[in-house]
Each structure stands twice: as structure tokens, then as C-alpha cells.
Amino acid sequence: MSFLPFWVSEFLGLSRMIQYLSCEYFPMLNHFIKRLIPLRTMSTYPKATEERSKELVENVDHILNRVNSIKSPNGRPVNLVCVSKLKPSSDIMALYDAGFRHFGENYVQELVSKAQELPKDIKWHFIGGLQTNKCKDLATRIDNLYAVETIDSIKKANKLNSSRDESKPKINVFIQVNTSGEEQKSGISSYEDLLSLAKVIKNDCPNLILKGLMTIGSIKQSTAAGERNEDFDQLSSYNEKLESDLGTTLELSMGMSSDFEQAIKQGSTSVRVGSNIFGARPPRNGH
């Protein structure tokens, strides 16, 4: 039983019909209809102030212009992942309303919480260090999990695969490679281990899609302005071998706020930018 006035119910019913017809027969018109006649659920999403929204959109447009100004050596488009860790959901909605859909998070619980609160067509990337016991949470609690970019063991791949219901969309995975040799960083180091893991994902994990390779460049390499980044060269070299051995084409996720332009010049097809868009992050848990 509806408690809304008759004319409000009629208007909402007409709104939904217009949205359905426009989406079904005039997809481009649907974009404008949604702005004119928003769904009631939109009002439940957190909203940034007008000033903050303007700041975020200006920042991301600036980054996107820099991304698009660089000619990739492989001629492939470059995807921008907006890294929103430790930032409020209202910031994400400001960019969502501007048309952005790819967002990255570093902490499982934060990602789960945001995914439950925000629109279901967001394409979430998990880009933080991953423990095997957290794979189930990612696989079962986030239907619109687009990618996990930090898979570095067969055990984690198998756990993520077995935890994902086959009725849900498959999860893209990037294998993390430790190209800098730094002990504090996760990732596979040898090509033999990389190939073994890639074969398991490709052949034995039907709920996963091997999307590509990911690395985090060392601070030294990432701040060497104007020079080739040896960590990125290493990942590109591994990628060429792997593509040849598997007979497939893979993505390269490399480059962050301090080095994404150099990463694109060296073949990156996905960059992860956070602080240059959202600003400095607060300390986690007050530390």
C-alpha cells in the first residue's frame, strides 16, 4: 500500500517508464533522462559539498588530460583507476556523478563497506596487500568487484576462485610482480613462478580472468625524473614472455601519482592515482 499522494505515485511511475524506454531504445538519451529524473534511491547516497565536488572534478580532469596527452608505445588506451582509500564515500560519488566508474581500495573491510553503500555499477579494484583469509570476503561480499590486482600465490588464486559463486560476474585478476626486489613488498619475483601462477589462473580458475600484471615501482625509480624506470622495464619484459607463452594479450597495471606518466610511456594500460585527485590522506586508525 502506498502512502504517497496520488500525483506523486503517478509521476514516479511515469519516470520509471521513461527511463526504461529511453534505456531500451535510445541509450544516449537515457544519460540525460537520469539527470533530469533521478531515481529515489539516489538521494540515499552520500553527497559531497558543491565546493568539494568541483575540486575533485577539476583534479581528476587534470589527471585525465595528462594521461590522454601521452602517446602509449603500444597504441592501447589507458584506464584511470581513482584510488579512494581512506576517503569518504561522498568523494567517490562526486566523481561517479561526473562519469567515473573505476575506483581502487587498499583495505578489504573498507572496500566491503563502500561497495554496500554506493552504486552497483562501480567497478571496484582491490589494490592492497591481500591475505588468503580475506579472499572469501572479497569474492562473496562484493558482486561488482571488477579486479583484484595483488594476487601473488596459487593459494590466493584458488581461494578467490573457489569463494566466488559462479552466478556472479567473473573477477579480473592481475598478478603482482615484485620488480624492485624490496623485501617489504609483496609479489612474485621469478618468471618461472609467474608462469606457473598464470597457468593456474588461466586453466584452473573458471571464476577468474587473467587480466594482466601489476607492479609498484621503487621510490628511487619512481622519482628519477626523465629516466626510464627499470621496474617498469622489468614488468614489460615479463609481460612479453608471458603473452608469448600463453598466447594471449595482457594488461599492465603500473604507475601511481608520482610516476604514472613515465609508466604510460613504458607501456602501462592502467594507472592508479589517488593523492593527486583526492588530496592527502588522513592517517589510518588515527596513527
TrEMBL record:
Family matches, as PANTHER family: PROLINE SYNTHETASE CO-TRANSCRIBED BACTERIAL HOMOLOG PROTEIN, PYRIDOXAL PHOSPHATE HOMEOSTASIS PROTEIN
HAMAP family per UniProt: PLP_homeostasis (MF_02087)
Family that this chain belongs to: Belongs to the pyridoxal phosphate-binding protein YggS/PROSC family.
All residue ranges annotated as the Alanine racemase N-terminal domain in the record: 62-282
InterPro entries recorded: Ala_racemase_N, PLP-binding_barrel, PyrdxlP_homeostasis
Transmembrane segments: none
Post-translational modification N6-(pyridoxal phosphate)lysine, affected residues: 85
Assigned keywords, A-Z: Pyridoxal phosphate
Functional note: Pyridoxal 5'-phosphate (PLP)-binding protein, which may be involved in intracellular homeostatic regulation of pyridoxal 5'-phosphate (PLP), the active form of vitamin B6.
Entry protein name: Pyridoxal phosphate homeostasis protein
SUPFAM superfamilies: PLP-binding barrel
GO molecular function: pyridoxal phosphate binding
Gene3D superfamilies the UniProt entry points to: Alanine racemase (3.20.20.10)
Pfam families attached to this UniProt entry: Ala_racemase_N
